[in-house]
Design brief:
about 475 residues; alpha/beta; seven-stranded mixed beta sheet; six-stranded mixed beta sheet; 14 helices; 22 strands
């Protein structure tokens, strides 16, 4: 299968451009394709097209909108092999992981499409002559920005919720991994989505984001990415009183309590850490292990980590693929080097392999000193930090020590400990005795510097709607 010929989607039309951006295969460093670079006129046309699409889309019956979205989800499932293959070529994850992401994205679209049928209002009786109807209405045109690490799932979070709520969306996916959003858009167009309801732009991130946020035609923005960029976008939006939905970085702690099985937890932990080469905002990274099981956990973790095969995502025996770009590998090398210099034990990995590709093995750092950069800075890559704790109080304090709070994990069979962790861990999502931290059916998002608002679950459409109160008096009793 070849890499797709990607175009911009503007007001229902597939648009090319003279200027293009190369897409690099991180496993080979070869160019696999090119994407068009949106001009200022393209961005303006997308905003105008979204306004026209909104007028049509928000007036359609929710069931009619849902039928189109559900048909697109069916098309995504039917095209799984093609979409997954393109994802491996541009992002590097294993083919199995890419296929799972396609299925997960389709599930998100199905969930949100059905949530659109459950956007109920209220009737508030204020007396025999007066009542209030509380309505939920689409907020308007939304600007969405998606990252490169989940090139199918992350764009789908924005697309599914915004469209299910009756909004129009202008999406700027990551230029490094454009195929996922392109395939989603193609499925929606093929399913009968009216022109302008979804627009997809690639190009200069600064120009696109600035133009969209400053436009009077855009009423809201949604962004998944780094804390630094999220803060910049939030400041720009705040100056124009535009609401934001922000899912930002994390540095997930994992508390492994004294009663946990160290070998069994280590086996699960390595599998979770290897997922997408650690390039996930919820990736388990800071392992805090009770002192009495520390050495057993470290030994089991390192043994499992050494068996993780690093290679091209299209190879059947690959467990983790390359990092998506050279910048990520440079950051990983910097963080490992700093930890090593400060006295951390490198139990496996820690060196880039020779040859082409942005490969870096799963690396285990034990007894990492407090001053190490990797304890404060999200590595966003295949690094596992394993430190010990004596008392649960200490583990909770370490888990909550950072300004981010996206995901956290804990392992214990003690019901009282589980309840205490649920109450005291500062994170938007806590997973106990599992590394499954989100699904289409559950709300997901962060606290503190990890952002605000929630995607998924029963609240998935809330951010994309406004509440209108309609006071209605009895004509006969009030105006007679």
């Amino acid at each position: 299968m070849n890499y797709p010929e990607i175009k911009l989607l503007i007001d229902g039309q597939w648009v090319a451009s003279e200027k293009s951006i190369a897409v690099i295969n991180p496993a080979t460093e070869a160019v696999v394709g090119h994407i068009p670079h949106a001009s200022a006129a393209d961005i303006a046309n997308a905003i105008a097209g979204a306004a026209r699409g909104l007028r049509v889309w928000k007036r359609m019956a929710p069931a009619e909108r849902a039928a189109i979205l559900l048909k697109a989800a069916q098309l995504m499932r039917a095209r799984e092999a093609r979409i997954a293959h393109a994802t491996v070529l541009e992002q590097g994850k294993s083919l199995a992981a890419a296929a799972f992401e396609v299925r997960r994205a389709a599930a998100i679209l199905e969930w949100d499409a059905n949530q659109g049928l459950r956007q109920y209002g209220q009737v508030v009786p204020l007396g025999p002559e007066l009542r209030c109807m509380v309505r939920r209405e689409p907020i308007g045109v939304v600007a969405g920005f998606a990252p490169w690490n989940a090139p199918i799932g992350s764009p789908m979070r924005k697309i599914a919720a915004a469209l299910s709520a009756g909004c129009a969306l202008i999406l700027k996916p990551a230029e490094e991994t454009p195929a996922g959003a392109f395939h989603i858009a193609q499925a929606l167009v093929d399913a009968g989505l009216p022109p302008g309801v979804l627009n997809v732009l690639f190009g200069d991130p600064g120009e696109i984001s600035r133009t969209l946020v400053e436009s009077d035609g855009v009423r809201m923005l949604t962004f998944t990415g780094s804390v630094a960029v999220g803060r910049q976008l939030a400041q720009m939006a705040a100056a124009r009183l535009k609401p934001c939905l922000l899912e930002l970085g994390g540095h997930a702690p994992v508390i492994v309590c004294a009663d946990a099985d160290p070998v069994a937890v280590a086996r699960l932990a390595v599998r979770a850490k290897a997922n997408n080469t650690g390039q996930i905002c919820v990736s388990p990274t800071r392992f805090l292990v009770a002192e009495n099981i520390f050495e057993a956990f470290v030994q089991a973790f390192a043994e499992q980590a050494r068996a993780v095969a690093c290679g091209d995502g299209l190879a059947p025996d690959t467990h983790i693929g390359p990092l998506t770009n050279a910048r990520r590998r440079q950051d990983i090398e910097r963080l490992v080097g700093d930890a090593r210099t400060r006295g951390a034990r490198v139990l496996c990995g820690g060196e880039r392999p020779p040859g082409k590709g942005y490969f870096y093995p799963l690396t285990v750092l034990a007894d990492v000193p407090e001053g190490a950069q990797v304890l404060r800075e999200e590595p966003f890559g295949p690094i596992a930090i394993i430190n010990r704790f004596a008392q649960l109080d200490d583990a909770i304090a370490q888990a909550n020590a950072l300004n981010v709070g996206l995901a956290a994990y804990a392992f214990s069979n003690n019901a009282d400990v589980q309840e205490r962790l649920a109450a005291e861990i500062e994170a938007g999502s806590l997973a106990i005795n599992t590394f499954t931290v989100s699904s289409a059916e559950t709300p997901f998002g962060g606290i503190k510097d990890s952002g605000f608002g929630r995607e998924g679950g029963a609240h998935s459409l809330d951010a994309y709607t406004v509440i209108k109160s309609v006071m209605q008096a009895s004509h006969a009793q009030v105006l007679a």
